[in-house]
């Protein structure tokens, strides 16, 4: 029996030596990097301990080495190798896989790649100008409209934003939206990089540089770049970004369908500030589109109607009152508040009996004469179906269309407090 074990040890050493020779030859004749096999670290003992007399264990080891030796003999080791350790299952590693070389670009080459990518993927919206406090100026080159990856707004969502519409070269409700972003920044504990008047002047100059006549101005306040830690303590300076978006799409007055959202609504602390944390809003919008609807309606924790993913909700009741949910648990919409003011015109004309805010149940909302969504991106949009319930007579409501016309007229000829000209 001792002679048999000695022969086994010699056989194993022969296999081990042969394997090392083959791999050394492959490494010297190929530029492809091969990972060091784990079994290359194994040591074959000079004498076998007593526990290896177990025939089952010896059989398994011999089977493995016999398979390896056969692979070497057939030359198939160049196509695949068997990697195994005492705690790992066998795995096949394909050494013939194609390598992919990632180029290292210069700054100018990277910008050119960005420019080419922009040209290839143009959409309905055109980005005409961007301001960044990082480079302290305005650019009209879309390829340069970028922000640092280590900005806390990018990787932690620690930023707030707002949007003002541009109509006929005028900014609509700029001051109202500016007040809201400053309020949101305070709630998010974001210091301002400039005072309010300086921010306002920068925003107006950005629109002026864009030469945009119809579109929107979107702007962000962030704690700024620094590092990738959770705390913003290393963010050395808050940042302001602004971009002018040209969009010639006309405002649509066609009736739409909405559904009830199954995505949990934001807590009021976060819902009442306009932060960049919009994942729940995105998922809610996607849920609506998956169900053939335009938007999904959130309900608050008490079951009352709250808001849409990026718009407010309002109803015309059976008593001809314009009814809108309170702003205490949802975002205070600048456009929605303007609609409430303009609706007083319809009250004076006798088309509405009143305007009020309050809790609205789902049952009351679905039984209303009219339902509408209100936001800066859509202005006033009629809703003709909610889930399986037809709203009113299933057609665009006259009050909803009248409110849309009022706000469109307000954007074109409203008072100076609402409509700011851009030189």
Question: Could you characterize what this model shows?
Answer:
α1 (2-29) runs parallel beside α2 and α9 (334-348) crosses α11. The chain has 423 residues and is of the alpha+beta class. It has helices at 2-29, 55-74, 107-120, 152-155, 174-187, 196-210, 268-271, 279-290, 334-348, 362-366, 398-413, and strands spanning 80-83, 91-94, 126-132, 137-139, 159-167, 170-172, 214-222, 239-246, 256-260, 295-297, 312-316, 321-324, 354-357, 370-375, 379-386, 389-390, 419-421. The longest helix is centred in the N-terminal third of the chain and has 28 residues, at 2-29. The chain is 35% helix and 21% strand. The chain is built from 11 helices and 17 strands. The strands form 3 sheets. Strands 9, 10, 11, 12, 13, 14, 15 and 16 form an 8-stranded mixed β-sheet that branches. A 7-stranded antiparallel β-sheet has the order 4-3-8-7-5-6-17, sandwiched between helices.
Q: Which residues form runs of ≥5 with pLDDT under 50?
A: 26-93
Q: How many H/I helical runs?
A: 11
C-alpha Rg, in Å?
33 Å
Question: What fraction of the residues are assigned to beta strands by DSSP?
Answer: 15-25%
What's the helix and strand layout?
Blueprint: H1 2-29, H2 55-74, E1 80-83, E2 91-94, H3 107-120, E3 126-132, E4 137-139, H4 152-155, E5 159-167, E6 170-172, H5 174-187, H6 196-210, E7 214-222, E8 239-246, E9 256-260, H7 268-271, H8 279-290, E10 295-297, E11 312-316, E12 321-324, H9 334-348, E13 354-357, H10 362-366, E14 370-375, E15 379-386, E16 389-390, H11 398-413, E17 419-421
Parallel strand pairs: 9-10, 9-15, 12-13
Antiparallel strand pairs: 1-2, 3-4, 3-8, 5-6, 5-7, 6-17, 7-8, 11-12, 11-14, 14-15, 15-16
């Amino acid at each position: 029996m001792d002679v048999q074990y000695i022969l086994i040890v010699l056989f194993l050493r022969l296999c081990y030596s042969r394997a090392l020779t083959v791999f050394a030859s492959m490494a010297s004749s190929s530029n492809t990097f091969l990972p060091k096999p784990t079994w290359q670290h194994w040591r074959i003992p000079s004498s076998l301990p007593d526990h290896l007399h177990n025939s089952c264990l010896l059989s398994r080891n011999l089977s493995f080495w016999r398979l390896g030796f056969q692979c070497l003999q057939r030359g198939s080791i160049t196509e695949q190798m068997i990697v195994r350790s005492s705690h790992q299952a066998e795995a096949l590693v394909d050494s013939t896989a194609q390598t992919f070389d990632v180029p290292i670009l210069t700054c100018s080459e990277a910008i050119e790649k960005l420019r080419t990518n922009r040209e290839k993927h143009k959409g309905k919206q055109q980005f005409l100008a961007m301001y960044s406090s990082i480079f302290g100026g305005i650019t009209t080159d879309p390829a340069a409209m970028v922000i640092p990856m280590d900005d806390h707004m990018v990787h932690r969502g620690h930023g707030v934003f707002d949007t003002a519409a541009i109509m006929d070269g005028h900014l609509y409700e700029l001051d109202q939206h500016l007040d809201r972003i400053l309020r949101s920044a305070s709630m998010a504990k974001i210091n301002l990089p400039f005072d309010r008047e300086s921010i306002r002047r920068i925003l107006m100059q950005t629109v002026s540089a864009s030469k945009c006549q119809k579109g929107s101005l979107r702007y962000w306040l962030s704690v700024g770049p620094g590092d990738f830690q959770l705390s913003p303590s290393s963010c050395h300076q808050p940042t302001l970004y602004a971009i002018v978006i040209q969009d010639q799409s006309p405002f649509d007055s066609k009736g739409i369908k909405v559904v009830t959202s199954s995505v949990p609504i934001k807590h009021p602390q976060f819902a009442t500030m306009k932060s960049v944390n919009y994942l729940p809003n995105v998922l809610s919008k996607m849920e609506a589109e998956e169900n053939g609807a335009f938007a999904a309606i959130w309900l608050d924790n008490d079951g009352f109607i709250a808001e849409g993913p990026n718009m407010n909700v309002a109803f015309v009741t059976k008593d001809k009152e314009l009814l809108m949910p309170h702003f205490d648990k949802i975002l205070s919409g600048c456009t929605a508040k303007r609609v409430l003011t303009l609706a007083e015109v319809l009250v004076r004309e006798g088309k509405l009996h009143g305007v009020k805010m309050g809790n609205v149940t789902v049952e009351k909302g679905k039984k209303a004469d009219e339902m509408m969504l209100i936001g800066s991106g859509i202005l006033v949009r009629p809703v003709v179906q909610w889930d399986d319930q037809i709203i009113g007579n299933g057609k665009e409501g006259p009050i909803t269309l009248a409110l849309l016309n009022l706000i469109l007229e307000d954007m074109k000829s409203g008072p100076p407090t609402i409509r700011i000209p851009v030189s």
